[in-house]
Amino acid sequence: MSAFLSAAPPLPAHPDPELAAILGSGLPHELSYALGGPFHLLLPDRFDANAAAFRAVLAEAGVEGRVYYAKKANKAATWIERCALTGTGVDVASAGELRDALGCGVRGEDIVVTGPAKADGLLRVAVLQGCLIAVDALDELDRIIALGRPARVLLRRLPPAQPHSRFGLDEGELETALVRCRDTGLVMEGFSFHLSGYDPRARAELAAELVDLCLKARALGLRADRISIGGGFAVDYTDAEHWERYLREQRPEHYHAGKSFAPADFYPYHSPVAGPDALRAVLAADGLAGRLREAGVRLLLEPGRALLDRAGCTVFRVQGIKDRAGYGIVTVDGSSLSLSEQWFSSEYLPDPVLLSAAVVSEPYAACVGGATCLESDMVTWRKVRLSARPAVGDLLVYPNTAGYQMDSNESPFHDLPLPPKVVLDTAGDRVRWRLDRHPLA
């Protein structure tokens, strides 16, 4: 009986010839030998191109604006170094993230500080460095005022369509905050929001409301000349045909131990409107671009995953293989904590690519487990269709993992080392590599 009778439907990532050439060069095997464990490959040129594409959409629409990289999406220093060199802003939400950004050369005026209930130390440094602070609550505003120094703030609006969100100020709190900003001389630069989901129209509708709030705030003598619409720009990992088939056909027998996932629990791995195109859709909805231009309001955005699209992958070494009825269990030299989709009780769905020394072999279906003593440590629960039966020393490469997957949930459980990040320089006629360096290490 074919092992593929129990395999999950295939879900390949979009073709990426540049990455395929790197994977076929032998470099991943050399790095696996040198580093002695799993690792992440980073492609900063892709990050630069993604940021430039977002800026191009703003220019195309004739809208003044600024792109801020949401640092929480990946801890690597190389992205922040690129921001410092290209003038891309950085969105931080902790004192550690702020220190990292400043340490990599990003100016305080190019940093926006978000997040709820910010610590006093974070607020103090943010004010001293001239950062833009998205104020999430009245007591937070009061703590900024108590510092007694000039401060730049945005007021974060609670989304009316998501009234149970824990982020933002409701209408009454906004009224109070505007008066306090006026009476204390804070530089109130505008408004922001945190909106869950990827619907461009919903984001445009709330952005239009913020434009109206800016006009209202100006009547009080406040500056109010910019709004931030946050992130929420989807990434398109795979094509529509494979994605729709996967959602339609996947069932518990396609997963190790009969594991099941509800389709609603998966990230939308195919999105017909993604990345810069999603920003284009936001600006086009209900004439938002025209309203921004007419009101003289700048548009700030804070993409994370979308700036990291195709900017990295994760590489594991095969440590063992067990054959079971109809499929195999492949164990790799790391853990599921290095693919953080499990943080959301979900599965990272783009299929891994096997780098094998096998010349001729039959295709093979297998799940992928981590090298820890936990039954639940499954890097991939589903039975993936691999090109061959893996051998010890072969590599499994998970594509497009830079956005949130690499380090959101990492842990040195069992004293396993955290996978290092390897930065690839693809300029010129050869590929060079270096280890990413934490700026404060």
**Number of discrete helical segments:** 12
Which H/E pattern describes the elements? Answer: HHEHEHEHEHEHEHEHEHHHEEEEEEEEE
Low-confidence stretches: none
Quickly give the CATH architecture of the largest domain: Alpha-Beta Barrel
Largest sheet: 9 strands, mixed
Q: What is the terminal separation in angstroms?
A: 54 Å
Q: What is the CATH superfamily label of the largest domain?
A: Alanine racemase
**Shape estimate:** elongated
Q: Rg to the nearest angstrom?
A: 23 Å
Fold-level CATH name of the largest domain: TIM Barrel
Q: What is the subunit organization of this protein? A: single chain
Q: Could you estimate the helical fraction of the residues in percent?
A: 25-40%
Word description of this protein:
This protein is an alpha/beta fold. It has 2 domains: 167 residues, Beta Barrel (Lyase, Ornithine Decarboxylase, Chain A, domain 1); 229 residues, Alpha-Beta Barrel (TIM Barrel). It has 12 helices and 17 strands. The strands form 2 sheets. Strands 1, 10, 11, 12, 13, 14, 15, 16 and 17 form a 9-stranded mixed β-sheet that branches. The protein has an 8-stranded parallel barrel with strand order 2-3-4-5-6-7-8-9, surrounded by 7 helices. Strand 3, helix 5 and strand 4 form a beta-alpha-beta unit. Helix 3 packs parallel to helix 11. The longest helix has 19 residues. The protein is elongated and about 75 Å long. The N and C termini lie far apart (54 Å). The mean pLDDT is 95.
